[in-house]
Batch of 2 targets.
Target 1
Amino acid sequence: MAIPTKKPDKKRRISESTIHRLSLYYRALTLLEKENYETVSSKELARREKLTPAQVRKDLSFFGSFGTRGLGYPVNELKNKIASILGIDRTWRVALVGVGNIGSALVSYKEFMKQGFQIVKLFDNDQRKIGSNHKGIIVSDINNLEKELKEAGIELVILAVPATVAQYIVDNVVKAGVKAILNFAPVNLRVPDDVYLRNENMSMELEYLSFALVNNLSQKRVNEG
Amino acid sequence: MAIPTKKPDKKRRISESTIHRLSLYYRALTLLEKENYETVSSKELARREKLTPAQVRKDLSFFGSFGTRGLGYPVNELKNKIASILGIDRTWRVALVGVGNIGSALVSYKEFMKQGFQIVKLFDNDQRKIGSNHKGIIVSDINNLEKELKEAGIELVILAVPATVAQYIVDNVVKAGVKAILNFAPVNLRVPDDVYLRNENMSMELEYLSFALVNNLSQKRVNEG
């Protein structure tokens, strides 16, 4: 069963929430595939991700994917299509800067590797860490950051350094030509317009929960963008 | 300067993106306060969080907060108001289950404490960890989870356990009467309708970045919901 494809309409804005929901669909489809489902309805996808079927249909139509009425979406094909849209149908070379508490945990974080994000370089400024082997990767000296990022062909950088030094390091990451940065430091960083920066703040999810507790948000709404 | 308040209009839906933007405004206002600003314009708040001024005004009007034309929003008052909306104008008693790589990093994660999320209990099933002191907290036996969550008056639980055991543990957390759970395990968990569950998947932010790289998303759009 072929999924008719069309290029995303540039005039329609793809929201952050939509992209996050694509990640959710991808996970649901991966699981459905493992469970040997060949097709899935928008209703079932919605149920699994606590969304409405209308939302699912809207999101998927947005990217030119249409299910067949009565049959639903072909699981494997839709999964591959979403992987391609998200850019996770390939491997990305990732460097992680800062091998502290959070950084060390991220090196072992299996979800990164599972989606094709391969951490191949580690950097730190601690002399006791530099040169040591961390999960099979030798920790590099932060002073060689720009040079080694270039040499290793790094496309994505994860920043797990103290807030006070984050901007300095980001400036060097940008100099090395890296265009995508995931920042764990609790600070707003400046990057040029052609560099994509995302901030991961794990406290924000707890704030969502405290908001829900205080305001008695209905559970149904939790995953809707 | 008083901010006129009104109750949020129940008929208007508060989206996930709006709540996350409130967290961003809170951080920006905290910083502005440190920088001794007394007022801030929607334009400046927008600039700092890479949003549009119209978006900022819309979000804040939603909660009944209005700036004064020409003067802007009173920093301290708006900050306190958002803290109250998000439920972070108080302290929450949090338990963390699973003191592995991610769990250990979260115990030391300063942002939690800064926003009032106080980790006061740790649980693990590893006999070598049970009874040990981890950042001043004695690790409890997972077998006593329900009982100890109740006794300690825990309101929020952070789950950093393997996917295979996550549902079993969540069931026990729910039995203990906890209504809010932040899950780091890469699995969809079932909870009753009156329990709020959020999944933290750090790979999703990397997927957003790979999407951006592949689709050449303009930077301006990155923080817009």
Target 2
Amino acid sequence: MASKHDTDVNNLLQRREVLGPAYRLFYDEPLTPVRGEDVWLTDAAGRRYLDAYNNVPVVGHCNPRVVAAMTEQAQTLCTHTRYLDQGVLDYADALLAHFPGCLNRLMLTCTGSEANDLALRMAQACTGGQGVVVTQNAYHGVTQLLAQLSPSLAPHGPAVRTIPPPHTDDNESVAAAAARWGAHVAAAFADMQAAGIRPAALLVDTVFASDGIFPPQPGLLDDGAAAARAAGALVIADEVQAGFGRLGGPWWGFAHAQLQADIVTMGKPMGNGYPMAGVVAQEAVVHEFAHTGRYFNTFGGNPVAAAVGMAVLRELEERQLPEQAAQVGAYWRQSWQKNAAALNHAPVRGLGLYWGVEARSGEHAARVVNHMRQNGVLINNSGPGGRILKIRPPLSFQTQHVDQLMTALLGAWDVSQ
Amino acid sequence: MASKHDTDVNNLLQRREVLGPAYRLFYDEPLTPVRGEDVWLTDAAGRRYLDAYNNVPVVGHCNPRVVAAMTEQAQTLCTHTRYLDQGVLDYADALLAHFPGCLNRLMLTCTGSEANDLALRMAQACTGGQGVVVTQNAYHGVTQLLAQLSPSLAPHGPAVRTIPPPHTDDNESVAAAAARWGAHVAAAFADMQAAGIRPAALLVDTVFASDGIFPPQPGLLDDGAAAARAAGALVIADEVQAGFGRLGGPWWGFAHAQLQADIVTMGKPMGNGYPMAGVVAQEAVVHEFAHTGRYFNTFGGNPVAAAVGMAVLRELEERQLPEQAAQVGAYWRQSWQKNAAALNHAPVRGLGLYWGVEARSGEHAARVVNHMRQNGVLINNSGPGGRILKIRPPLSFQTQHVDQLMTALLGAWDVSQ
């Protein structure tokens, strides 16, 4: 019988052989999970890992209610949106109830990339423009259009301008930081217009995840949004990372920021792993887009997606997981403060259950991540230079899981210097 | 209790209210299926409809083996391709076994749109070009890039040139038709180059579905492919419509055409309704693309997708559904010939279980489609002017289903003149 090591090496070789080199793996010693349950992943050797990284299984890995809803609907009917179906409408109603009244139309896709791509098509239809402002290290998806709007992946396209993420410097007021960021946005659109490019959108991930995690604060994005509107652009809140209660309490980053968005996109946790994503927009935006043509997404909004999405909503609502995320996030912050000295007072930023810790360097971050993986706790690193430890567990994460996470982090921090 | 009529009207109103006007419905009297089984859809009133239209449920609506595979894996583990997973590699091996040896790398997405978008990014990476040649009424997907390459949806983009679909005129040899089509392709690339646009790809749906259905013939695409290569472009076979045995016998349209493709894309039937799609390409193409950066699709190639995809492959293989499609398709052609006079010798084109019938006009086609729907058989119309009746049932369709389809078509043809 092949050893676990041999099995993993064979898997790696076969992977290179059939999937090719564009695919990347996590960790120096890649993980081979065979079982997921709530906040736990188990490998073939029976070793359990605490998952403090995966935001897709928002209501827990292999959530029984979600799997049951999926199975029951898949056994019954799975068609598409060109037939009438009550399930998708009930889901749309239930989801839109979590939005302010002006954001009242839902269009369904299968991935966050498709949602962002569609949102930009909408913004282009409404403005007649092509120009988009994004943050310096943004990531918005993998379509050709979005790759050009994702400087963290590749150099940005010709109709794109980049700005720093918004944040408050030490002792700076939110109003001052908002004005500073608003000036960046205004300058970016002015530069675009000077080059003859008509503005279409300001597109922001409301937790600025790939820029290093800068959680929303009330009013912080207001001046930037005003500058975008003054330039004739729409404001798109990309909630693929921040949405569905991830930040604790209010379900969306734009709600935490008290931002007026024209379009909101969402994805990852929406189906707890079932491929579904969506765009919520103002009625006028959807109507303007509809003038340019019909929209049909073969799998988007199918009856199984609707049933799965509804089960995820009900789990979030009934178990009050966004509220729990706020509490557990506060506990994590306290725990961090208690251990700040042992962690060299490294800067930490976050909200709810989305946290970033600035390591000393990208190399330090990578060593911490790999050390923690060897000790049974899964996180990762990202941000500029890979220097930010990224922590965003399933929302069913509890205080005892924070304790285990902190113990692993403390153990990894020094040996990884 | 609300009548069925009231329920449908309420559903329609609610749909407009929450999904908005970009969504369209089939049929003058929209259908509200509540149950799917093999080739049947059943509405709330218990009425059964023969599904002669939906190509996604390729191994039958709610196929029990596929649902069981999905459920079992979803109960066990659903992560992503940044961990090692044997299931996705086994699936890749099983799928690639259906391709010629030079097409030996698989990348997984969630939708055909994502697959075509990725294929074009690959072609752009390999050629340094942006220019794409497509057919006049092509449809390749809904991303911003693909909308520009889908003249059936919207006017094509500036780096796009269009050509007619290839076909043999009466008594014309395949070689003559191939040469004629090759000249169109060569002229399109020459025009593009004269405008300073560097060629990237010739992108063709190998059954030319939205152009009116022109099934592949051996050698018919050869001269066009040679012209594309002479211009420095890659050849992309879009198998989203034609693939997975739809045309009977060989699994792919490019195989029926004996076409050498650099990249092949697939989608709709791949997961029998579970959102999955993919790109199969030559090793050199994937390597060239990988130089431009990594690729990660959150849901693409997840363990549930792999399990579902494998169950679909096994159903197709073990039940020999592509072979059955060839036989049932031949039976349909015989049945058509027997009834040709009653159908005014209307032109019919197709292969396996993908058929197009030219109605007298778009209006005639729409009336036939609606009449058949009222008589319990589901087809649709598409192509230029909506004049082509489109017939592409699940591959489990059998001869008795052909008889029912033909009876409904005969009944609809004359009353719809």
